[in-house]
Every structure is written in C-alpha cells, then in structure tokens.
Amino acid sequence: MFSDPLLLLAFVACVAVAIILIIGISGFGKGGVDNAKRSNKYMRWRIYAQALAVALILLFVWLRGVVG
C-alpha cells in the first residue's frame, strides 16, 4: 500500500499538518505578543499545508479510482 508514491506523499503532508498544528498550539499556550504572532503564522502555514494534503488525497482518489 505504501509503495504508491502519491499515497506516501499525501501521508507525509498529513504528518506535516499535524506537526505544524502542534507547534502552533504550543505557541499559543506560552502567551506573549511575540508568541501569538508566531503562532498565527504557524496556523496560516497549517492552512496551506492542509489544503495541499487534501488536494493530494483527492488527486490520489481520482487517479486510482478508489471510490466506486
């Protein structure tokens, strides 16, 4: 199953989203103005990474004909 490079890339993108989310949330917990700005930047990066992950998953499903 993980021999498919597109599936592996989608999995890596999902892991990256989780890591960025954890980093962003940990920054919110520390408090302070600088940490808040940095956390907001991480959350923007998370949105971009999440959009990429969803696009890769949809591309995988479409190309492999998994649905139906």
Characterization of this structure:
The chain crosses the membrane at residues 6-26, 47-67. Residues 1-68 form the HIG1 domain. Keywords: Membrane, Transmembrane, Transmembrane helix. This protein has 68 residues and is mainly α. It has helices at 5-30, 33-64. It has one domain (11-64). The chain has two helices and no strands. Helix 1 (5-30) runs antiparallel to helix 2 (33-64). The longest helix is centred in the last third of the chain and has 32 residues, at 33-64.
Percentage of residues in DSSP E strands: under 5%
The coarse silhouette is elongated
Strand-and-helix sequence, N→C?
Answer: HH
Number of strands: 0
Mean pLDDT: 88
| Straight-line N-to-C gap | 18 Å
- Output the radius of gyration: 15 Å
> How can the largest sheet be summarized?
none
Number of helices: 2
Structural class per helix/strand content? mainly alpha
Give the oligomeric state of the chains in this entry, treating copies of one chain as homo and distinct chains as hetero: single chain
Binned, the helix content reads over 70%
Parts with pLDDT < 50 across at least 5 consecutive residues: none
Please give the domain count.
Answer: 1
Domain HIG1: 1-68
Transmembrane segments: 6-26, 47-67
Pfam families: HIG_1_N
Protein name: HIG1 domain-containing protein
Strand-helix topology:
Elements: H1 5-30, H2 33-64
Protein name: HIG1 domain-containing protein
Keywords: Membrane, Transmembrane, Transmembrane helix
Pfam families: HIG_1_N
Provide tags for this entry.
68 residues, mainly alpha, 85% helix, elongated
